TrEMBL record:
The keyword Hydrolase applies. Residues 307-314 form the Cytosol aminopeptidase domain. The keyword Manganese applies. The gene is pepB. This is Peptidase B. Its EC number is 3.4.11.23. Gene3D superfamilies: Leucine Aminopeptidase, subunit E, domain 1 (3.40.220.10), Zn peptidases (3.40.630.10). CDD domains: Peptidase_M17. PROSITE patterns: CYTOSOL_AP (PS00631). Pfam families: Peptidase_M17 (PF00883), Peptidase_M17_N_1 (PF21337).
Length: 459
């Protein structure tokens, strides 16, 4: 798989680019000469509708695209809804959209070109788009490329995306941008004091790893930590078959931080970036860790194992402890961590927790501006008692079933005590196709973070 092979770009501007004219439902913004044609074809500007106006030789003179009702908030990437219906050609956008709405439209058009074609040939997009005037082309292309990288990594099945392959993707990315990398593997995880990562991954025939990427030599220090569980059987607390079917996406946190890292590096943000990914497979053999085991983490905190299917927080714990040792200005973790988060907010919203007041204030607006919705959840201190089992410092799977996403976040917070910390409990998957978002792997929170970082880190 060629890294960023599916990253779409804008087409070069040409004099013969076809005008793509956007129309809001109920507003008469069409040229008088086209009004009769549009009326005859029943075009009213409804969401996802289009009407092709032919030229005198039977080709395409221009196309009208319906955006639906102005101000509607029920859909994202409304212009992308017409992208797959357009006749073959290169289009330039004529629209009254501006600001963040125009950026969203431009990004949606690029993302609509994404295809995951590693295993089966997919229909090639017929339409290509010139960057609309007023759009930061480099930024939009970087965001699209980062998202497509994330999608490719998540969509690849675990047979072809094990710890070694995830490591190679990370190494290829950092080499592309001129950074440095270090990988700790197998038994070296024990000698380098990453006992939880080793314990979770040791039952697999594919050795566990800790991937450590660095880029940039000036500015504030940002560390991204991504859960890289390439497949999760549940361990000895084996998942039922129906719950195991999507577990190739359990490295969605790692895929998302790599996508965000690409955006940061491609845009040359003035910061020192570190990316930590514990890459493991939670499998079953005679060496698998057991319910009832008590494990000691890199930080020295002990953890009672009450469910081997709550393994993500274990591998993140060692990585977070390492992250804080470097005294960064901000630590951000991303993980497909709990089903409780999906019950709380569904698949579209990315819930986040933060100890940083600036992040809490800035991130929701940044998310709205980038069509990347997030929702703040609380680090609710009274629930700390739920993750304290008595026999050890921490419980990896509190009983009772209440507040599962919050207790997981509180568990992780124990490993970041002196640094501003933000944690995302993402889904990493679109269960149904939507404009610019095909069914399958999906990044969540990366664009929102990219937009928030300049204020959070005072760049």
């Amino acid at each position: 798989m060629s890294l960023l092979a599916n990253a779409p770009k804008f087409a070069a501007s040409t004099d013969d680019a076809i005008p793509l004219i956007t129309v809001f439902a109920g507003e008469d913004t069409t040229a008088e000469s086209d009004a009769a044609w549009l009326a005859a074809n029943g075009f009213t500007g409804g969401f996802g509708s289009l009407c092709v106006v032919p030229n005198s030789s039977g080709g395409v003179a221009r196309v009208y695209a319906g955006l639906g009702a102005k101000g509607q908030t029920r859909r994202r990437f409304v212009l992308a809804a017409v992208a797959g219906k357009l006749p073959k050609g290169t289009y330039r956008i004529e629209t009254e959209l501006n600001g963040t709405d125009l950026d969203e439209a431009a990004l949606g058009l690029l993302l609509s070109a994404y295809r995951f074609d590693r295993y089966a040939k997919q229909a090639t997009p017929q339409a290509h788009f010139v960057a609309p005037d007023g759009v930061d082309t480099a930024k939009v292309e970087a965001m699209a490329a980062g998202e497509c990288l994330t999608r490719d990594l998540i969509n690849t099945p675990a047979s072809d995306m094990g710890p070694a392959e995830l490591t190679q993707a990370a190494l290829d990315l950092i080499e592309m941008h001129g950074g440095a990398a270090e990988v700790t593997q197998g038994e070296d995880l024990l000698t380098q004091t990453f006992p939880l990562i080793h314990t979770v991954g040791r039952a697999s025939s594919r050795a566990p790893r800790l991937i450590d990427l660095r880029w940039g030599n000036s500015g504030p220090k940002l560390t991204l930590v991504g859960k890289g569980v390439v497949f999760d059987t549940g361990g000895l607390n084996l998942k039922p078959g129906a719950s195991m079917g999507l577990m190739k996406k359990d490295m969605g946190g790692a895929a998302t931080v790599l996508g965000l890292a690409h955006m940061i590096m491609a845009l040359g943000l003035k910061l020192q970036l570190r990316v930590l990914i514990p890459a493991v497979e939670n499998a079953v053999d005679g060496s698998a860790f057991r319910p009832g085991d008590v494990l000691t983490s890199r930080k020295g905190l002990t953890v009672e194992i009450n469910n081997t299917d709550a393994e993500g927080r274990l591998v993140l714990a060692d990585a977070l402890a390492l992250a804080e040792e470097d005294a960064p200005d901000q630590i951000i973790s991303m993980a497909t961590l709990t089903g409780a988060a999906r019950v709380a907010v569904g698949p579209d919203l990315a819930p986040f927790y933060t100890t940083d007041e600036t992040m809490a204030a800035v991130l929701p607006k940044a998310a709205s501006d980038t069509a990347d919705p997030v929702w703040q959840m609380p680090f609710h201190d009274p629930y700390e008692a739920m993750i304290e089992p008595g026999i050890a410092d921490l419980d990896n799977a509190p009983s009772g079933g209440f507040a599962g996403s919050i207790t997981a976040a509180l568990f992780l917070r124990r490993f970041v005590t002196d640094t501003p910390y933000t944690h995302f409990d993402i889904y990493g998957w679109n269960p149904a196709a939507a404009p610019a978002r095909p069914k399958g792997g999906a990044g969540q929170g990366a664009r929102a973070l990219l937009a928030a970082l300049p204020q959070v880190l005072d760049l």
